[in-house]
Each structure stands twice: as C-alpha cells, then as structure tokens.
Amino acid sequence: MSDQLVFMMGEYEARFPTDRQYCSNHLYLKEDSAREGSGGKVYQVGFTAYSVRLLQDVYFLDWSIDPNSEVREKQEIGEIESSKALSTLYAPFQGKVLDFNEALLDDPSTINTDSYGNGWLFRFETSAALLSPDEYIKVLEDGWEDTQRMIKGQLN
C-alpha cells in the first residue's frame, strides 16, 4: 500500500498521507503520540493539500480563541487570509485546542509549502470519530462537482 493517496483536482494532484486521519472540513489530524490527553487522543491539525490548493497563497492567520480552549464542532476559532479570500476557521470536532503553531503567526507561508510538516496549525484533543484517508477521498469525490462550480463562479 502506498503511503499517499492522490485526488485529481482537474490537472492538479492533491496528495494525502495515509499516516493520518481527516475531517470533512479539509483538515488532517495526525496523532501526536508524544502527548497524552485527558479527554481523548492528541493530534496535530493542519490543512490538507486540497484546502491549500483552493486557498492558494496564505499570508495571514489569526486565532480568535486562547490555547487550552474547549470548543464545540464547527465553532469559529480563527481566520485565514489568502490570495483567494478571507476565510473563517472552524473547529473540526468537539474537543480542546491545546496550543497553536506560533511560528505561523509570524510567517504563515509555511502552510503553502509544508502543510503536512511544519505548516501544522494547532494541537487538538478529541475523542471524535475521524475519517480514514479513503473515506476522505470519497468526500472529495462526492463534492468535486460543486467545488468546480464554486471555483468557476469565483473566476467569473
């Protein structure tokens, strides 16, 4: 089995490592085995290649909550600005945002170049059921037609 899955976004490849799990709002969650949580597993959370491709060049990131904040699913937690739009960031599940990748506040461009590595956004503790890489690819396939319409609408 490959260590990555590929989803074609038109002529562009979006690659997804199979060593992490995903959520439908286009974030990955990689288990952080060095940290123990009291209410679930601890994960590093970041943007998938799909979301980075749609955002394009990220140049501003701001958090609207403090570290160690309990959050509910889809709660607003911050904002990100890119060449495409200003977007609100939402909690992927109910859980606790433990801390943020502080380096991104000074230079969020790492999200563009290394989202699966040093471009992670925050550490998150949750006991939620996450999507496998294959399940996430299915979410992308099911929504790709709508995404293409949205992209074309932005260009027109």
Question: Can you describe this structure in just a few lines?
Answer:
The protein has about 160 residues and is an alpha+beta fold.
Structure description:
With 156 residues, the protein is of the alpha+beta class. The protein is 25% helix and 38% strand. It is built from four helices and eleven strands, in the order βββββαβββββααβα. The protein has helices spanning 49-55, 103-106, 110-114, 133-155; strands spanning 4-9, 12-17, 21-23, 27-31, 41-47, 58-63, 69-71, 76-82, 86-90, 95-100, 122-126. The chain has a six-stranded antiparallel sheet. Strand 1 (4-9) and strand 2 (12-17) form a beta hairpin. The longest helix has 23 residues, at 133-155. The chain starts with a strand and ends with a helix. The mean pLDDT is 89.
List the main descriptive attributes of the protein structure presented here.
25% helix, 156 residues, alpha+beta, single chain, six-stranded antiparallel sheet, globular
Task: List strands and helices in order, with pairings.
Blueprint: E1 4-9, E2 12-17, E3 21-23, E4 27-31, E5 41-47, H1 49-55, E6 58-63, E7 69-71, E8 76-82, E9 86-90, E10 95-100, H2 103-106, H3 110-114, E11 122-126, H4 133-155
Antiparallel strand pairs: 1-2, 3-4, 4-5, 5-11, 6-8, 7-10, 8-9, 10-11
